[in-house]
Amino acid sequence: MARLKGGWNQRGRVRSLEEIGSAISFNIWQIAGQGVLDLENEGFQTDTHSQRLDVLCEYAAFCLNMVDRILHEQFDLEQRNRMISSAGLHLAGIVQDNRQETNGAGDYRNDFLALLNDRIANYSSCQFSRSDGPSFVYLRMVGDYVSQKMGDKDNKWITGYVIDIAGDKLFKSLRRILPGLIDPAKRVRESEGLAEEGMIVGSDYE
């Protein structure tokens, strides 16, 4: 696993919200990848690299939604949308590169963006605490999604593993690296938003 980046080089330079979103996406990919490795180390079987990417994409979508929830009280909806959209689009590019190496040519980018939008919409109804993390219902939902990607062999055990162990580890990894990444965003003035095409839209949680 590559080292997580919890801060910036050249700290005096002003970062755009889009740059911050890109840095968030890099860390999410590493955290999600470690989550897949942990899953395998616990004895849950993945048969192919394509299946590993399926699970990694579910973890990445879960992490991106948690970032959106963590940012909720610190930034307005437009600012959050810019960071989350940038992070989602960068993640989609990473997925495209990895899928092409594994599965051959295809439009994996848009498939992943569709997955992100679907998951963000579904997770938006779940409770989340910035201090304690995702609720049981939230964790059960992501556990079920991961279980569906893992096949029949370990299916009945995976949701419990995500609820009891994996979800909390993903949350704590995000909470550890986010402060150093988003602090510059608090100094960014409002500017033009992202174009609507390809945009990942954060939710206005109650």
Describe the secondary-structure layout.
Layout: H1 17-41, H2 49-71, H3 77-103, H4 108-123, E1 128-129, E2 133-134, H5 136-150, H6 155-182
Antiparallel strand pairs: 1-2
Helix pairs in contact: 1-2, 1-3, 1-6, 2-3, 2-4, 2-5, 2-6, 3-4, 5-6
Summed up, what is this model?
With 206 residues, this protein is mainly alpha-helical.
Note down, in words, how this protein is organized:
The model is unreliable at 1-9 and 189-201 (pLDDT under 50). The protein has 6 helices and 2 strands, in the order ααααββαα. It has one domain (17-184). The relative contact order is 0.20. By secondary structure, the protein is an all-alpha fold. It has a two-stranded antiparallel ribbon with strand order 1-2. Strand 1 (128-129) and strand 2 (133-134) form a beta hairpin. It has helices spanning 17-41, 49-71, 77-103, 108-123, 136-150, 155-182; strands spanning 128-129, 133-134.
Shape: globular
Number of helices: 6
Q: How much beta, percentage-wise? A: under 5%
| Mean pLDDT across every amino acid position | 84
Number of strands: 2
Termini gap: 36 Å
Major sheet: 2 strands, antiparallel
Percent in helix: 55-70%
| Rg over CA atoms | 16 Å
Total domain units: 1
Order of helices and strands: HHHHEEHH
List unreliable stretches of 5+ residues: 1-9, 189-201
Question: Strand sequence of the main sheet, in spatial order?
Answer: 1-2
Structural class, please?
mainly alpha
